[in-house]
Amino acid sequence: MNIKLTQSLPKTHTQKILKKEAKSKDAACLVVLIDDKKNILAESVLSDYQTRIEQLIEVSHFNGKACETVADYALAGDKKTTKENPVQLLLVGVGSLDKLRHSVLQKIANTIYKSTQKRVDSITVALGDTLEENQFGQFALNLLAASYRFDKYKSEQQTPVLTDIYLLADPSLEDSLNFAQAVFAGQSLTRDVANEPGNICFPAYMAEQAQELAATYPNLLKVTVLGEKEMSALGMNCFLAVAQGSTKEGKLVLMEYRGQSNFSATADTSKATTNSAKVAGGLKALADKLPSKKAAKKADQNSEDNAHAANNDAPIVLVGKGVTFDSGGISIKPGAAMDEMKFDMGGSAAVLGTIKALCEARLPINVVGALACAENMPSGDATRPGDIIRAMNGKSVEILNTDAEGRLVLCDTLCYVQRYQPKAIIDVATLTGACVVALGHVRSAVFSNDEDVLFDLENASHLSGDLIWHMPMDDEYQAQLDSPIADMQNIGGKGAGAVTAACFLSRFVEEGQAWAHLDIAGTAWISGQDKAATGRPVPLFMQYLKNSANMA
């Protein structure tokens, strides 16, 4: 799909009638937005169409309710020597301008695309100065996202007629449109790999996707893949406990996006605590630059600025759960809807897509994407309930449920990525059904040990419309993970399942290391007959990284 800013309206087409059959000229459509008070948005640039618009509103009894539509199809024309094909009009209601939140903009964008995709080559959406910059970006992204299709396995594919979208808006929004296009590219990759079936998308496939990205953007991206042999040498036994039940080898894929400068990991984990303290100071200096915090924390400004400068090249690390198919292992899942467990790699798909979007947007920031990829299968080699294994950081874990496997691949990966001495670590995972019970399919859950990272994620959530909700992680929940024979067990009982999963992960983050955990079990895909990946939280991550780059 091509999308561009424009400063002109589509032109009327005229074609002489010939003996041969004339080709259809229903090629363009002008989309006009109307609010619930029947006000024509961007009215000042629509003077040539004013009469047609007002007549159409009147004869159709159009009220301007959100997603209400009416089209005139431009049926009128000269009956003699020429056949005029006036530009089609499509009126779309937007409802109250005070309620143009992300969900409404998404519905309006979907309505526009669905109303035009099968009958015109191009549309021009008259926006004028109706939308603020972040609203414009959300609207453009949702128009693009509406065009996404995953039908590669269908014998018959229907290609939409619509190929070009023009947004009649201020030229100053060009950067916002370019950013939306970059996010769409990443979000589409996320949806592509997540929608693939488990017999196609397994750990090696995810590694191949990352390596293809590195080949496409060689000046920005370096990819390293660790197999089970390397992970065994590192003591990543929690990760391997999940992978060992499958014939598909587990892979830890490390994607280093060098948008600001070169950086490297250090194998000396003995310095983790000292370095983490420096990181925390750097994050506080970053947070102080936000408007709402400028007046606070004056006393240690100089030392914090120095810490920030020393830590400026440290990357932000994104860690994605990549269980490419989750049968539950020996604690096997019920058969109903088990096919949707191909989406259990939604976290790693989101990290992969975010890295692609970063390469497209070329944000001046250093980021590491870690894809923790394994297949969770029952077999003679699979981990059993009751087994005790030792993680990379030396802590022992009693496995009570092999279907609580995502936290096992993540905990070792969290241990590993701290060698980058990152500014912040954010892991993202389709981790718990309890999160779906708590928040449904609207907001992703966020847990964090750092209020600055939490603040920045919540700000990015507001600006992107990719919504999150802060969940508790009180120390009192930690007791649910106590084991009588090991340092901890991998589940915490029936209550607060999403919380205890976050508490489990927190035990593998060094003190002082800024960290957040996103549980996207309810938002990574849509269930049911029309099951499909959503591409979340790529928009959230890209807004967060954009804001972070601007603060650097």
Automatic annotation (TrEMBL):
CDD domains listed in its UniProt record: Peptidase_M17
InterPro entries, per the entry: Leucine_aapep/pepB (IPR011356), Macro_dom-like (IPR043472), Peptidase_M17_C (IPR000819), Peptidase_M17_leu_NH2_pept (IPR023042), Peptidase_M17_N (IPR008283)
Enzyme Commission numbers on file: 3.4.11.1, 3.4.11.10
Domain of life the protein comes from: Bacteria
Keyword Aminoacyl-tRNA synthetase attributed: no
Gene3D superfamilies per record: Leucine Aminopeptidase, subunit E, domain 1 (3.40.220.10), Zn peptidases (3.40.630.10)
GO molecular function annotations of the record: manganese ion binding; metalloaminopeptidase activity
GO cellular component annotations of the record: cytoplasm
Binding site for Mn(2+) 1: 326, 403, 405
Known cofactor(s): Mn(2+)
Protein residues bound to Mn(2+) 2: 321, 326, 344, 405
One Pfam family here: Peptidase_M17
A Gene Ontology biological process term: proteolysis
Keywords (A to Z) from UniProt: Aminopeptidase, Cytoplasm, Hydrolase, Manganese, Metal-binding, Protease
Cofactor note text: Binds 2 manganese ions per subunit.
Active site (record annotation): 333, 407
Subcellular localization(s) per the UniProt record: Cytoplasm
Domain Cytosol aminopeptidase: 401-408
Reactions that this protein is recorded to catalyse: Release of an N-terminal amino acid, preferentially leucine, but not glutamic or aspartic acids; Release of an N-terminal amino acid, Xaa-|-Yaa-, in which Xaa is preferably Leu, but may be other amino acids including Pro although not Arg or Lys, and Yaa may be Pro. Amino acid amides and methyl esters are also readily hydrolyzed, but rates on arylamides are exceedingly low
Record-stated family: Belongs to the peptidase M17 family.
NCBIfam families: PRK00913.1-4
Cited PANTHER family: CYTOSOL AMINOPEPTIDASE (PTHR11963:SF23), LEUCINE AMINOPEPTIDASE-RELATED (PTHR11963)
Function: Presumably involved in the processing and regular turnover of intracellular proteins. Catalyzes the removal of unsubstituted N-terminal amino acids from various peptides.
Protein name (database record): Probable cytosol aminopeptidase
Organism listed in the record: Psychrobacter arcticus (strain DSM 17307 / VKM B-2377 / 273-4)
Gene responsible for this protein: pepA
